[in-house]
Amino acid sequence: MSLSSVANQATGSSLPPLNIAMVGHAFMGRAHGNAYRQANRFFDLPRAVVPYVVVGRDQERAEAAAQKLGFLRATTDLDAVLADPDVHVVDVATPNDSHHAIAMAALRAKKHVLCEKPLAMTLAQAKEMAALAKKQKVRVGLWHNYRRAPAVAQAAKMIARGDLGAIRQVRAVYLQDWLADASVPASWRTSRKACGSGAHGDLNAHLVDLTRALTGLQFESVCGVQQTFTRQRPDGRGGMAKVDVDDAFLFLARFQGGAIGSYEATRVAQGRKNHNCLEISGEKGSIRWNLERMNELEVFLVDEPRDAQGFRTVICMDSVHPYAANWWPDGHIVGYEHTFVHHVADFVRALHDGSAFAPNFDDGVAVQAVLDAALQSAKDGGFVKVPR
Amino acid sequence: MSLSSVANQATGSSLPPLNIAMVGHAFMGRAHGNAYRQANRFFDLPRAVVPYVVVGRDQERAEAAAQKLGFLRATTDLDAVLADPDVHVVDVATPNDSHHAIAMAALRAKKHVLCEKPLAMTLAQAKEMAALAKKQKVRVGLWHNYRRAPAVAQAAKMIARGDLGAIRQVRAVYLQDWLADASVPASWRTSRKACGSGAHGDLNAHLVDLTRALTGLQFESVCGVQQTFTRQRPDGRGGMAKVDVDDAFLFLARFQGGAIGSYEATRVAQGRKNHNCLEISGEKGSIRWNLERMNELEVFLVDEPRDAQGFRTVICMDSVHPYAANWWPDGHIVGYEHTFVHHVADFVRALHDGSAFAPNFDDGVAVQAVLDAALQSAKDGGFVKVPR
Amino acid sequence: MSLSSVANQATGSSLPPLNIAMVGHAFMGRAHGNAYRQANRFFDLPRAVVPYVVVGRDQERAEAAAQKLGFLRATTDLDAVLADPDVHVVDVATPNDSHHAIAMAALRAKKHVLCEKPLAMTLAQAKEMAALAKKQKVRVGLWHNYRRAPAVAQAAKMIARGDLGAIRQVRAVYLQDWLADASVPASWRTSRKACGSGAHGDLNAHLVDLTRALTGLQFESVCGVQQTFTRQRPDGRGGMAKVDVDDAFLFLARFQGGAIGSYEATRVAQGRKNHNCLEISGEKGSIRWNLERMNELEVFLVDEPRDAQGFRTVICMDSVHPYAANWWPDGHIVGYEHTFVHHVADFVRALHDGSAFAPNFDDGVAVQAVLDAALQSAKDGGFVKVPR
Amino acid sequence: MSLSSVANQATGSSLPPLNIAMVGHAFMGRAHGNAYRQANRFFDLPRAVVPYVVVGRDQERAEAAAQKLGFLRATTDLDAVLADPDVHVVDVATPNDSHHAIAMAALRAKKHVLCEKPLAMTLAQAKEMAALAKKQKVRVGLWHNYRRAPAVAQAAKMIARGDLGAIRQVRAVYLQDWLADASVPASWRTSRKACGSGAHGDLNAHLVDLTRALTGLQFESVCGVQQTFTRQRPDGRGGMAKVDVDDAFLFLARFQGGAIGSYEATRVAQGRKNHNCLEISGEKGSIRWNLERMNELEVFLVDEPRDAQGFRTVICMDSVHPYAANWWPDGHIVGYEHTFVHHVADFVRALHDGSAFAPNFDDGVAVQAVLDAALQSAKDGGFVKVPR
User: Fold this and answer.
1) pLDDT for B375
2) Distance (Å, rounded) from C-alpha D229 to C-alpha D222?
3) What's the rounded Cα separation, in Å, for the pair A130 and A362?
4) Domain map of chain B by residue range?
């Protein structure tokens, strides 16, 4: 019995399975691999998802990853994978600086593509990728997974149906502290060459995507400031490596229509482990969400008796909340990796029924445009218009 | 390629896989099935765990469950399963009133047994099961999964190493609200015949197990009060069914050595979805844990500068916390089902190296003794000694 | 210009001022004295309140207190004070064991009486006081001040107007930790002779009063357990003094009509400074209040869109909340002593217009009856009926 | 008996009382008046504080205020008050646009001055005031009262003793919502002429002062953005009035030495009543404070066992915390107006012993310099250097 037929058992579907080739198998590969294994187990999808092949740079390590993550096989030959008609989706889960090249190759091979964020290293690259995706008429997705936390999806639903009225202000912070200590070694994440920027590209990217997903606001102009508190770190070989990316990056934003916002990404906020937190204020209400308590949504609605008004904590794991009914009874929470499972489930459905899927490469372009403008402003010291 | 060989790929182990027969496939079956699939993916275990066969009462439904949950096959023939030498572990995931019969049969067949809580319907049954497990020299476990939330395991570690000093008080509540509305239909959970008691056996059971796991305290005597606020509910066939179990059950406890505690289980506390919350006060500190924020542990330690003392919120998903390093980076939270994965991982290790595993059937007996004494006291109106 | 005329300036009232004689001037005297000084400053009352005379056992200390607290004079001669026709209200702010004697004397002298809690040392004493108060046709109040925290008054209003539906469960704890350390010296608060009981009379008294004030429920029977963890403490003279009161006292309650509740008072819950916290669950909603965040009320109402339900935090310092408009702009919080100011303001109004004032001595009798029954049950080990 | 002798009774001091002339008697007058009445009651001060005279524009209203607030008399003749040798301190509690003129006159008359914030309408005015204060050798204070919340003072102490290490980041927001509704009428607070700016001068002023008080950081340059969401409001006479101040004002800051910060003041953040909240991150720890829970300080310290690290909530009302021992037992909280009492108590002591008092007019100049630079930057669209 083959794995793909096992996978199909999980769906009861008569359609052919959807085979995934995942390029890269480090941290993000673990999260993606889990999502492919779990999607059919908890969602009734039109097609079975098969973790088909892992593509790595080292055969032995790729094979170990394939075994651990439940893929059928492993290879180092990306070209062969792209030439394989049984591969339906290419997942780009490599470090930032190779996203563009691999995704472009996959698109040229007419594969559907799921790409890790950030989409690319530059806005120009991102646009090129989005354009090719359209031209090739394939479906693409970008792994901004936090959109699919149940509480975030619930917030988006509330804002879309007008519960908050017109949005006026966004205050968004993504606070971590793993670089607060100067003795933490340098890595690709502290190198501009490998990742373009530091906390900014890594964390502000999420905040920008979440803002767009939740509010639909368009960024008009931004003004940023950045700081690197620790300018060299141990290189792991007894010496010191220069740190040329930001430890912390703050920016203000003006949106089309008059809303304003503030953004902060930092890796040196002692005590904040994964504090990805947005508060959005509208004419009639507000919401607040924090990844560290990702199943909860704080909601304020002004259309209540005046003496009973207050921020309420909605545990978004009731059967009425997005994705929640697919998991456990009311009030039993889910975690980080579930957002990836939701991403896969929604992508499979969109692929099947031809409906829109977001975030896609156009969203990636939009995020990149904001991040680039903020980087430029941090150099220039003033507001910079975000290109459309 | 067979699934079991796939499973072994995940471990790289040369030992034969551990085949699981799961009896029952409803809610708890989904959680157990997931645990069997995931254990090898996130933990390096000495043996591969194989979801081998689902045993149900209806072949069609059992097969659908096996497909969905990733088991190799399904059957209605429990006797054949128990006679199958390739079945290593029998998981009893059926409603409460069949735990005893199925587990006893499995033990007689010399299978290792993992049994859902409660262990049995009576203390006598529970003792019989524990005795047979010992006699047969097999390994047994009881699915009190909350012990293995990272934050609970961390709390147990802190208490064991003396951070809190001698424990003086326990205040434990498990608050839900799904029966607050009188129009919610009757079910097996509102029938004494099917489950023995209501919130008491369902929820207080967890609190008693957690108290024992965290503190090591022995219950000496208890005094309870119960109430059924809605005495009949729609029976789903147009009529009304009598409710003969408690909606809420409170009891006080005296522990050996002088500590005291209070316990509450309720299904009618409006607004509380899954509020399984313990606060434990010792001579030198306190901890508080709440399942709804299951990754967090609140900790107070008196050995701090006086002006900086306070309850701290420890997000127990740092690499230094129990189980955390097997999942995601610091501060990325896990959810309800992970506790089951940890249960399986620890059981497999204990099986392999012969080390102790808890909770086992002796723990089940101890929990049952407390619950029974509390039930008796609620009838008699006074403190009742907990039998040893 | 005399102080009383100054006081009248604050009211603009043409009625004679209300002169207060306060017996006792320690901790509670400071809180009461402040209330008398502040009431006219923040409330428009029909009569000016004048802190008239402090009665103490030592003239020098009484004079120092009178000066500090703003009373016109001090004396040790209680009889003369009771004979003084210019004294309108006698405030009994002495230790517990003298409440009965002083209040009875004041009542016999036909003075209005404000008595610190507990009303008396025994139920018999309390009844005697309540009876005499009625016979003398004077007005009396009991200083259960927490009723008049704005958030508590707001909760009472919500429950009275039916926001929560019928009340089913009360869970109440008053947790402190000042006796957690065995080296803390003995005092009158650890002596049964001086105060009757420990945490029970001191803290459970508040919980019982708050339950009655918030819900109107009548206690039917109770069952308690108590513990003294530190049985002797330094006596301040180089020796050790026996501790013969409880450190912690828990009890369960059955109310008339079927509601049930749990109560805990403790002075050894490490980390809890003044955690006077009640959660009340009704058919349609719940509230939770905690003295440490005394301006906030947590409210859950089931009559909301299902996907937006959750406990909301109402900051009860909006102009629409009880007492709030007399203080500061919205969201500017008040503290502990304000509850006493509200007590005085309400008492003066009730005195003036003849309306009811609660808590009064009948309430004190009701509280005492519950506490006594709980003490009895802790000895007997079973439920004890609360006398009417 | 005169009030001043009554006041002296409270201190037991043989020194002459300190007579206060308060100009203005609206909202801030109520808070200041209370502080003068209460300071001697709760603090043992070297001199008695006497609320001596209220100066208003209307004799009748001033007299009513004097009566209500406990001042000896009222007048409309400021010149006479300034000429009165018995007046020791002039308190400027009028709207913003008259601070400069009144304070300058008082300084010329060699009175000590306590001035409401903001110090002035322009930086030039502020500097003039600070210069004259020095020249006249009188003592001056600025009513940035939040510095003296016990939890803020505790935070300052921790930072000063190095608990957090070098400060790297400040994130400060002051969120209110009283102008979220477009139907709220215009007032002097929505008029640039009367107050210079909107939320910026009103609320960011507090954040800037708190930043300086807590961290000692010097603002180097700032970049701001502002928005007015409701551009006209009912004028209370049936028409509409133009709103020419900001509803919300955000700015980024660079500090000398490399720290960075973000600031937000808004009056339209639905659900936020008085959310004055700062989080400060240093090399070794962080603190967070929120005025709505003003007695609590959240503290993270990295020098703890790794598995027990987390933000702790310190209730800063233990006898070991600043100001706390002057009030109530541990854990009994204080409120908004207590910060003013602390301000008066500290000012009286500083006056008596010649020690420094902050915030003073130099601090006011520093705050004004930051606010002005931010206003300028919001016009120019880039970073603006803060003048020294």
Assistant:
1) 97
2) 23
3) 6
4) 3-145, 147-385
**Cα gap D180→C19, rounded to integer Å:** 46
Answer whether C299 sits within 8 Å of A307, measured CB to CB: no
Percent of chain C with pLDDT over 90: 94
Name the architecture of domain A3-145: 3-Layer(aba) Sandwich (3.40)
DSSP three-state, residue C280: strand
CATH for D149-385?
A: 3.30.360.10
Task: Choose among D1, D274, D331: nearest Cβ to C273.
Answer: D331
pLDDT in tens, C371-385: 999 999 999 999 999
Q: Is a pLDDT exceeding 80 seen at residue C239?
A: yes
Sign of the dihedral defined by the CA atoms of residues B371, B375, B378, B384, in that order:
negative
CA distance A108 to chain B (A): 33
CB D299 within 8 A of CB D312: yes
Question: Residue C173's closest chain B neighbor by CA?
Answer: B171
- Tell me which residue has tokens 């009559």: C303
Q: CA C145 to CA A186: how far, in whole Å? A: 59
**CA-only gyration radius of chain A, Å:** 21
Nearest CA in chain D to C12: D67
Of the pLDDT bands very low, low, confident and very high (cuts 50, 70, 90), residue D14 is confident
Is the Cβ–Cβ distance between D10 and D70 less than 8 Å?
A: no
Q: Nearest CB to A273: which of B6, B330, B337?
A: B330
**Closest to C313 measured CA to CA, from A293, D271, B269, A151:** D271
**What average pLDDT does this structure show over D158-168?**
98
Distance CA A289, CA A295 (A): 9
Q: Is the pLDDT of residue A111 over 90?
A: yes
We find that the CATH architecture of domain B147-385 is: 2-Layer Sandwich (3.30)
Q: Which two tokens stand for residue C54?
A: 């402090």
C-alpha B332: how far from its chain's center?
24
CATH code of the domain occupying A148-385: 3.30.360.10
Closest-CA distance, A370 to chain B, in angstroms, reads: 26
Please give, rounded to a whole number of angstroms, the shortest distance from the CA of A300 to a CA of chain C.
Answer: 8
User: What is the Cα–Cα distance from D318 to D327, expressed in whole angstroms?
Assistant: 10
CA-based nearest residue to D36, from D86, D89, D81, D77 = D89
Shortest distance, CA B255 to any CA of chain A (angstroms) = 30
d(CA D250, CA B292): 35
What digits encode the pLDDT tens for the residues A338-386?
999 999 999 999 999 999 999 999 999 999 999 999 999 999 999 999 9
Shortest CB distance from C258 goes to which of B227, B283, B284? B227
What letter would DSSP give residue B244?
-
CB burial of A129-160 (b: ≥16 within 10 Å; e: otherwise) equals bbebbeebebbbbbbbbbbbbbbbbbbbebbe
B312 contact residues in D (CB cutoff 8 A): 308-313
CB contact under 8 A, C248 and B302: no
| Token code pair at residue B257 | 């050595």
State the distance between the two ends of chain B, measured CA to CA, in whole angstroms: 51
Would strands D167-175 and D275-282 be described as parallel, antiparallel, or unpaired?
antiparallel
Reading the block at residue C110, the tokens are: 């036909």
Taking residues C230-258, report their average pLDDT.
97
Instruction: Give B69→chain A minimum CA distance, Å.
Output: 6
Do residues A336 and A177 touch, judged by C-beta distance below 8 A? no
Residue to test with chain D: of C273, C275, C313, most D Cβ within 10 A: C273
d(CA C142, CA C208): 13
Distance CA A345, CA A38 (A): 9
Question: With bands split at pLDDT 50, 70 and 90, how would you rate the model's confidence at B9?
Answer: low
Look at B331 and A31 and tell me if their CB atoms are within 8 Å: no
Which chains have 3+ CB pairs within 8 A of A?
B, C, D
- Helix/strand/coil for C41: helix
B311–C283: do the CB atoms touch at under 8 Å?
A: no
